[in-house]
Amino acid sequence: KLIKPTVKIIGVEPEGAASALAAINEDRVVSLNEAVTIADGTAVKTIGEKPFEYIKQYVDGIITVSDYELMDAFLVLVEKHKLVAENSGILSLAALKKLNEKNKKVVSLVSGGNIDVLSISSMINKGLIERGRIFSFSVQLPDIPGQLEKVAHLLNECNANVVAVDHNQFKNFARFSEVELRVTCETNGEAHIDAIVETFKQNGLEIHRVN
Per the structure, how many domains does the chain have? Predict the structure, then answer.
């Protein structure tokens, strides 16, 4: 900004902990009632006085992003760029879709790798579910032979790859002659999921989404 004052600097915060935006709106440091976000490094209720002064002087605007947008950005970073960063480090990446700039050079700063393996796994799985790449559903089936084969055949017709199956014969149902089947499969998005639901419906089976 000192070298080129015309450069725009856009700050990014998680929706659940937007203490800087609250301070800008009030023109004073304020404290949020809570700070709830998967971006732990920026989960603060009250912005510091010195950062607030720097923001007022140098930052041209602040964008907030949801945890779902953060998960999507994390997945993009892993899939497309083969990079792993902590949730607070990808805030700027998650905000790119919200910029209204056209024909401009945009630099998204990505930094910080303080994230454990379990969190990485969770972020990837939740991101895939949010994108419709993983679809889990339950379906009630008559308790007669051949029903598992029928479900497998329908999923094969829909080009859905089965990841997990749980066939529960012992759960209490409204009708004693029924069993519950829970299936998790890989899909290509919401349109693919809709096609699976419709295919099952046409074959007399009603799917209940469980994710």
Answer: 2
